[in-house]
Amino acid sequence: MSLLEVRDLKVSFDTSDGLVQAVRGVSFTVERGKTLGIVGESGSGKSVSTQTLLGLTAGALIDGEALFEGQDLLAMSDEQLRRIRGKEIAMIFQDPLSSLHPLYKVGKQIAEMIRQHESDVSKAQARKRAIELLGMVGIPEPGQRVDDYPHQFSGGMRQRAMIAMSLALNPKLIVADEPTTALDATVQAQILDLMLRLQREFDTALIMITHDLGVIADLADDVLVMYGGKPVEHADRRSLYYRPHHPYTKGLLESIPGSTGAKTRLKPIPGQPPSLINLPTGCAFHPRCEYVMDRCVPEEPPLAAVNDKDGFPDLGHTSACWLPREAAGLSTEVERIRQEAVALGRTTGALGSTAGSTVVDAGEAK
Amino acid sequence: MSQESDVLVEIDDVYKYFPIKQGIIFKREIARVHAVDGVSLKVRRGETIGIVGESGCGKSTLARCITGLHPITKGRIVFDGQDISNLRGRALKPFHRDVQMIFQDPYGSLNPRRRVGAIIGDPFDIHGIASGAERKRRVQELMELVGLNPEHYNRFPAEFSGGQRQRIGIARALALKPKLIVCDEPVSALDVSIQAQVINLLKDLQDELGLTYVFIAHDLSVVRYVSDRVAVMYLGKIAENADGEELYENPRHPYTSALLSAASIADPDAAERRERIVLSGDVPSPIRPPSGCRFHPRCPKAQENCVDVAPDLIVRGGDTASHLTACHYPVEAAENLAVETAAIEQLSTEPTLPSA
Ligand SMILES: Nc1ncnc2c1ncn2[C@@H]1O[C@H](COP(=O)(O)OP(=O)(O)OP(=O)(O)O)[C@@H](O)[C@H]1O
Ligand SMILES: Nc1ncnc2c1ncn2[C@@H]1O[C@H](COP(=O)(O)OP(=O)(O)O)[C@@H](O)[C@H]1O
Ligand code: SF4
Ligand code: SF4
Ligand SMILES: [Mg+2]
Ligand SMILES: [Mg+2]
């Protein structure tokens, strides 16, 4: 049995503008001790799909299943979920200030959280554990810093404190939602290094959410790429980075400066991410795709196996795209499709070479 | 002299301190933020100079000093041959036409209640350059130039996406045909796929209009891509300054090396091969910057001398004349900083693992 198995999760929000389809059918599994990376642009549904598992999306319309050690999280009462939160599944957010209470000492918050879940632990014992935990995440002089308030910590130290708190109860799964996005490069490196070492030490499973494909390149076992509330590609790390199939994954990798050689022109993905209220028909990526074919506009592609190097379907590598099953851009057939799409003017096209021809219709953004 | 005429902006030993005041009626200065602390830099015509560094190191403050938005505490800024450091009010007007700024936050820097046409056309009004139909024609030209649909002249900022709002900011900055554009994190708030669109646009505009850019970012790969020269800042000072490729291929300052090794790489094999230099601690406060070399509390090469003596930003042994480094013990080509430890005692942020 997998540690966590999410099946066809759908989440929407009823807003005054209309129904926001934030997550439109996401499935994934997380094995014990492994790391799943979830990547996508802002608004692609990364946070909602994981927050929903812990009952943190109030007012949402939810459908699907999320089996944690065989029990469906989505069918649990608030009370049952509260017991799982922190103890079995811990979360780390982008902004640690919003999850630390400003008026309580850092150590006290960690100690309280331990005592909430383990009632037989004394105050003195909990405090001692808080100090150990702070030391474990690399806070210097933890014996003194345990009595600091969150505002007395720097951004990096707050994130360390959050990690300490998430580890306090030895959870089986940690969900880290952009844990380093707000941090500086050298501090980000410290925190990633720390998380990796602690994960190995305690054999914790990790879901790492990020918009930056670089952050998880050496961290994730599997990667799930989301677009417009749906997974568009799911693969082990090497297949995803070296043999991407979905044109969106390929586009993300190619738009990073330096990926196409030092100073050659960058290759952006044209257009903008879709509106989740008024999604494009068929493949949600079709208005931005340089391979778009006739069937992409009316028909939505399912996640299906991609061929491996030897031409056999690889069940561990799936992509939701109508292109032939070889990795995109590798076969002459796929290249012919791209040229046809350009010739027929089906695509908004790769943005033109002069600034003036890069007109994008603002109406599409809505 | 001919070489000097190539220089559009000369920043000469510029300081910018922010006083921290306390007291209810008689506010007393109790400390100061050393936001920019003795920075010298030359920006040549038509080039892009990139400025990188971590949050709070003074990048935006330096940018605002260059554009005249902040009066400087000490030093001299010469723009196009004219010393502007002490100009005030009306005397600054021509300078304000020649220097424009693009901000990080495309949402915050546009008034949500004004139409895009009015926002982009503002500079024409302020400088009395064009009005009525002529103004509209020129605004629409600008919109076309930055890849916005000119028919959207009457729309509000909220009706545009993040990338498009950044284009609006760029169009407004271009209105007066400036000589210099200071871009403060112009793509940091944008999604990866949109970042590349805006970077391409900025490069095309530079080629077409011969613009000079000061380009600030914390993302090293973006800066490498756009810049001819790069200055690395740490706590209000320049740690290293060199031609772009030279700085990335042959970093001499330990902080530059650490920053480069910390950058994320979207390539599993390369990411695994790389040895991260994990620094200890956080960036110290610019209110009480460390003595001597400001990097010494975190530097893996620090020695006694570094605590007392601040290193000058000069050419170090074996480097080309345009490669300046502020470090007593520059990094050598074959050196592996990831395994070095400082000769002085530093605050450790190494985790204490139970098994260790
Ligand atoms: N108006 C002000 N009053 C007081 N302190 C200020 C002011 N503006 C900036 N500072 C301080 O000056 C220092 C440098 O700030 P600056 O905004 O230039 O940093 P930065 O390098 O642009 O950082 P970031 O990457 O976060 O944008 C910081 O410590 C900041 O808090
Ligand atoms: N409480 C809410 N009410 C309405 N819409 C929401 C709510 N929470 C999230 N959304 C929308 O759901 C979509 C996905 O959001 P999110 O999962 O936060 O994206 P990200 O991938 O950036 O983490 C976005 O369009 C967001 O605006
Ligand atoms: S080829 Fe078609 S199905 Fe595949 S990503 Fe492009 S538009 Fe979608
Ligand atoms: S001067 Fe000393 S402390 Fe500063 S960077 Fe060089 S070696 Fe490190
Ligand atoms: Mg999010
Ligand atoms: Mg700034």
Explain what the structure shows.
The complex is a heterodimer of chains A (366) and B (356). Chain A is an alpha/beta fold and 366 residues long. Chain A has 2 domains: 4-224, Rossmann fold (3-Layer(aba) Sandwich); 252-259 and 267-357, no CATH class. Chain A has helices at residues 46-51, 78-84, 96-99, 106-117, 123-136, 142-145, 155-167, 185-202, 237-242, 247-254, 332-343; strands at residues 4-15, 18-30, 35-39, 61-68, 71-72, 89-92, 173-177, 205-210, 222-227, 230-236, 303-307, 313-320. The longest helix of chain A has 18 residues, at 185-202. The model of chain A is unreliable at 349-366 (pLDDT under 50). Chain B has 356 residues and is an alpha/beta fold. Chain B has a domain at 252-356. Chain B contains 11 helices and 12 strands. Chain B has an 8-stranded mixed beta sheet, sandwiched between helices. Chain B has a 4-stranded antiparallel beta sheet with strand order 2-1-4-5. The longest helix of chain B has 18 residues, at 192-209. The relative contact order of chain B is 0.13. Chains A and B meet through helix 7, helix 8, helix 9 and helix 10 of A and helix 6, helix 7, helix 9 and helix 10 of B. The structure holds adenosine-5'-triphosphate, adenosine-5'-diphosphate, iron/sulfur cluster (SF4) (2 copies) and magnesium ion (2 copies). Residues 18, 33, 35, 53, 55-61, 218, 286 of chain B line the site of adenosine-5'-triphosphate. Adenosine-5'-diphosphate is lined by residues 13, 15, 20, 22, 40, 42-48, 276 of chain A.
